Amino acid sequence: MEVGLTERLDSFVRKHNDRQLAALPLAVFVISLIILAITFASSGSPVKLGMDFEGGTMISMASQESVTAMQQKYADYPITDVRQAGSRIIMQFGPMSDELQQKLTSDVIDSYDNVEINQIGPVYGASLQKQAVRAVIVSFIGMAIVVFLIFKTFVPSVAVVLSAFSDIIIAAAFMNIIGIELSLGTVAALLMLIGYSVDSDILLTTRVLKRRGTPQENISNAMHTGVTMTTTTLAALVAMYFVSTFSYLISPSFSQITLLSNISIVLIFGLVADLMNTWMLNTSILRWHVTNVGTRRRKA
Amino acid sequence: MRGDEKQQSLLKDIRVIVFILAILGSIIFIHPWYTSNDGFTTNLNYGLDLEGGSWLQLKLQGAVAQLDADSGLLVKEIVNINLAEDVTITSVNEGANDVTVTFTSPSLLTNNQIDQLGVGQSTITRSNNLTQVELHSSKETLISTYIEDKLKTEVVPTLVSDGVEYEIRTAITQEELQTMMEKVGGSIVTDINGNPVYKEGVTTETRDLTKKILSDKLNSLGLKDIPVKTVGDDYILIDFAGIDLATAKNIAEKPGKFEIRIITQGNESKHVLYGDEIQSVGIVGYHEDAGQWYVPFTLDDAGAQALQQIAIETGATKDPMSHNLVMYLDENQVYSAPLSSSAASKLEQAPIYSWQASTGTDEDGKTTAEELQIHLRAGALPVNVELMGSGHVDASLGQQFKKEAVIAGLIALLAVAFVVFRKYNKPAILVPMVSTSISEVIMILGFAAAIGWQLDLASIAGIIAAIGTGIDHLVIITDEVLYEGKLPPRKVYLSRITKAFGIIFAAAATTIIAMSPLVVMGFGSLKGFAITTIVGVLIGILIARPVYGKVIHEVLAAGAETEAE
Fold first, then answer.
1. Model pTM?
2. Does B533 touch chain A (CB under 8 A)?
3. Cβ B99 vs Cβ B141: under 8 Å
4. Quick check: A149 and A92 in contact, CB under 8 A?
5. Which one of B315, B342, B363 terminates a domain?
6. CB distance B413–A236 less than 8 Å?
7. B425 shares its domain with B535
8. Which pLDDT band, with edges at 50, 70 and 90, does B9 fall under?
9. B431 lies in which domain range?
10. CB of A85 within 8 Å of any CB in chain B?
11. Of A176, B96, B276, B339, whose CB count within 10 A is highest?
């Protein structure tokens, strides 16, 4: 299947001119920006913030009780959400006093098995949020500097940075669409995406700029390698996603691992976006650049 | 014959030797072992989310600022807060190091009452129904006492290069502090640029003291392996392996039982007071003239009365040497010394509020004083702490997570192997590629075992991420070497492999740069994720992938030969 994908992508790239090629990824990029802007306008943050950044308590435990029963049982606490995942109940609470917190903790630990509790104070959440935003910005700028140092030419470097940026924006917009909240895990995934997404861009740019042969040949060659790279990574992530998310369906002795599940789903969509951005957006800019510089040189 | 030669050259290659040593070293560090009693065991440490346990993150509340105020108004306020007396300030005499404030009041004021303020020595005269008090103190003491009484907290003044810094050991905003100082004709001192010298948080010393108290407390409960870590200047993180969250909170918040007794006869002693009657504990000091290290502490009214009464009853005031004052923390003796002769004779007349426990003249005396300072607090923390975050994972759930993480890793590897096989269709490429990937995982785990790193879920995600980039890089090497499906001549091969490593190093550099902010900022579980990813990438590009480049060349060359035959 992946061989078919490479071939189809390759002929698509050959058949369309640079402007046509860039149109689709740019359109998706713009739509993603609009989605982020709408979320920002309605909630004050481009992505929905999870408990790690808003503050609150998440408790999950093994229980066969119904959602409504749990809601009633913990009505004395600021309960905001109850969900069922296989043989487990996941409850979320808003911020509460220390005494109430202690009472809730003791109660749950004493009465249930396989308990997991996570509590973040609102103040700490706000400071984590600031740090997370800073981490994403710093690491993006760091990546951009490295890219510029590697290629030392403006247009190809911008193309790489732009397609990495688009990957993150599309992944973030996608999180909004399917309702994944920003947590420490998803921030890690976005950072990882910065590292992953430039791998294939660097491969493409190096092959096109530094190898002899026509740009189109080099692009096709790079694509064969690059698409394999991304599909192997995707295969690993899809495996991680299914095991961490759905293994409880196979055996009741397993539970969802939210952290791994979130990291993998965000990376999966980021990498799918990366396939498009590398082989359409970055490729079109690079092809345009090489042909233009090439013609100018020939004229001179 | 030729095959043997190749085998030789491969084993003589420095990169291959390093690789083999690294793998062997890693296996030794991981130390996988099987016994029928314990089952399968390794040297790997697991984080709380895999092992079960709980964690607490505490924020130390406080503020550090330079302050100034009017001495007269300070005294007036301090007397007002403590004795509910509105006194008239008649004169203020400020010297270089001390300050003398004289005030009058129509009510009767005793020496005892003024001593209780804890600001200094006083002379009291009374004439014409008017009490006149001459109080000798210092500005630092007055400012500290004022804030202490006002906020019911401790304030520690320290001399810094450009003045005196006050550490206020409870949460107070800059505005609140400014308003409070304006009430006594003062303000937060501004620096040369006109910015107020105010910082939220506590000093590094206080943070370390808090950390030590927590560690000592955990040790005294027999929980020696529980690490207390400081995160930045204001946060403390405690990981309670194998302890549930409710118990952990109790341990961190509940102080120990501190008691003072006086020896009556032989081993017999009489109870004087418990730790809750100690009002405050100062910082360790050194007496120049006596050459003694000491810890200052103050007693509340009930405590001071009790100490006077029992000292007189037991005869300690008459014969201090045979009636030592003994301090216990959780039933263990932590201090024993006689009353000083001056204290003994003073106790005959009145209770003493401010005490100093002397501990000796040398370095040992200093160490003892530092320990006593902690004991006097009975494990109560020097600053107010706020619970910033906490977590809990049942041990059985951690077991499940561990099993699932391993399964996820194995299935991920199988999925990758499947994709690689579909693409190249050659076991000759598949086997070295997958083995390289596995060897990288072994080396990452070996590194983790060697430095005692705790593997948690985030680190495992990091390892899976590293496998992902690792395979990417192996694909780049393979495709470069295998240009147009064949092995190129040696010269071309060398230039190709150099180019491949150029791409790999560039890609690795971006990944490392992208992850490094997380290592530096180090918040939450993401630090582990970033570190494992970076370590994985480094191990990959420096140790494993060069060997893969070498091996894949040999394998393909051997393959080409067989085809030619």
1. 0.77
2. yes
3. no
4. no
5. B363
6. yes
7. yes
8. low
9. 2-52+394-564
10. no
11. B339
